[in-house]
Design goal:
By secondary structure, the chain is of the alpha/beta class. It is built from six helices and twelve strands. The strands form two sheets. The protein has a seven-stranded mixed β-sheet with strand order 4-3-2-5-6-12-11. It has a five-stranded mixed β-sheet with strand order 1-10-9-8-7, with helices on one face.
Length: 268
């Protein structure tokens, strides 16, 4: 008999989520900091992260001297981010609040030098009007010449196999194994069905098994290119993949399943 998973929402389990992804935090923060040098980002150090989750990247940047702001639609994530910021003594450099990507209100005046969404967070906007509203608000939030870094998975509509990713993280005796499956996308609805399963142990003993089901929007190369072209006011200045290696920009998008786009707010 197979393992039994309880239906749940892993976004309401911020500690487990944080443990799974925290191993990449420094690499991601290094990449974002380097963008300012490589692509002429202004000398300002104000950064905004929509759908910031546990705030792990913002907290790392705050520890490096950045003034950070972020929001998330899940209250548990926002609360966790605030508590962790206090534990890391960076609460004076981080503002977090509850809000949505397609309709957010800034807690401070606009003029951010950097905004970012990584790990395909962008794909949670499943309607075209949401996508358009999101880009318009990011544009307004950025200072002149500010940069928006967008990382996402690309879809291959000819793919007929279920894709699988696995992460393992551990902290203070809590071990989390995360298995995510993505089903072939429907090119008509442009939706990808996803399933996440968490296996959690505490000091070697079983603690929980949780299953989360949801859908995200699909983007093949042409669809993403068209989306960027329709995002008025941005210019694409560079493309990378999820290795976050600034020495290896992508000359095209056809030979990768992940892209990280560096979009600069165009001058008026």
């Amino acid at each position: 008999m197979g393992d039994i998973y309880e239906s749940g929402d892993w976004y309401r389990a911020p500690l487990w989520y944080d443990i799974v992804f925290d191993c990449d935090t420094r690499c991601e923060a290094d990449f974002l900091e380097s963008i300012r040098v490589t692509h002429g980002l202004s000398q300002g150090r104000r950064v905004l992260e929509p759908a910031c989750g546990t705030g792990r990247i913002l907290i790392e940047l705050a520890a490096r001297g950045w003034n950070c702001a972020g929001f998330d639609s899940e209250p548990a994530m926002v609360e966790f981010a605030g508590l962790r910021a206090q534990q890391e003594h960076v609460q004076d450099r981080l503002v977090v609040w509850e809000d949505r990507m397609e309709a957010f209100a800034l807690k401070e005046k606009s003029g951010y030098d950097l905004a970012f969404t990584l790990l395909s967070t962008f794909k949670y906007l499943t309607e075209e009007k949401q996508v358009s509203a999101f880009f318009a608000q990011i544009y307004e939030a950025l200072a002149p010449g500010g940069v928006f870094v967008l990382g996402t998975h690309l879809t291959d509509y000819t793919q007929e196999k279920i894709e699988h990713e696995r992460w393992v993280g551990e902290r203070d005796g809590v071990r989390v194994v995360c298995n995510t499956r993505t089903w072939p996308a429907d090119s008509t609805t442009r939706l990808e069905a996803m399933r996440n399963r968490l296996q959690v142990t505490q000091d070697g003993e079983h603690a929980a098994r949780m299953e989360t089901l949801w859908n995200v929007r699909s983007y093949d190369v042409e669809e993403l290119q068209r989306t960027i072209e329709n995002a008025s006011g941005f210019e694409l200045v560079a493309t990378y993949d999820f290795d976050y290696d600034l020495t290896k920009p992508l000359p095209n998008w056809e030979n990768t399943d992940t892209v990280v786009l560096v979009l600069r707010k165009a001058s008026c």
